[in-house]
Amino acid sequence: QVHLVESGGGLVQPGGSLRLSCAASSSGYVIGWFRQAPGREREGVSCIANNGGGTNYADSVKGRFTISRDRADNMIYLQMDNLKSEDTAVYYCAAAWGSWTTTCILDREKGHYLNWGQGTQVTVSS
Q: Which of 21, 30, 46, 65 could make an S-S bridge to 98, C-beta 3.0–4.6 Å?
């Protein structure tokens, strides 16, 4: 079991940038970033595998968002550039057991993401 805490959300103008952080209490997991707007289903944004750090991105954020991991302190980051109003949502990091896999599945159920942080609000507005 791993405990996750997100931070770094805020209010930015369209075209701006934010870096979200996810502090994990332990290592050895696949980590995914998900987001949910009011009245909408939670959707996958990006994920990173434990073995080799293979990544995956939703089509809507490719070329704009970058996920990374710092194994020294169990931190996972989501760098968000060129933000759009449709990126507005609560962003969550989540963990799935997958210490050996070199790839990650960007789907809440298929990826078996079982541990979740409390979320951080990202609002993109002019």
A: 30
Question: Which bin fits 25, alpha (ψ -120 to 50), beta or left (φ > 0)?
Answer: alpha
- Report which residue type is found at 46: S
User: In angstroms, rounded to a whole number, what is the distance separating the alpha carbons of residues 40 and 123?
Assistant: 15
Helix/strand/coil (H/E/C) assignment for every residue in 82-117: CCCHHHCEEEEEEEEECCCCCCCCCCCCCCCCCEEC
DSSP letter (8 states) at residue 25 = S
Q: Per residue in 15-71, pLDDT tens?
A: 999 999 999 999 889 999 999 999 999 999 999 999 888 999 999 999 999 999 998
Half-sphere exposure of 111 (CA within 13 A, CB side): 28
For residues 15 and 68, give the distance between their C-alpha atoms in angstroms, rounded to a whole number. Answer: 21
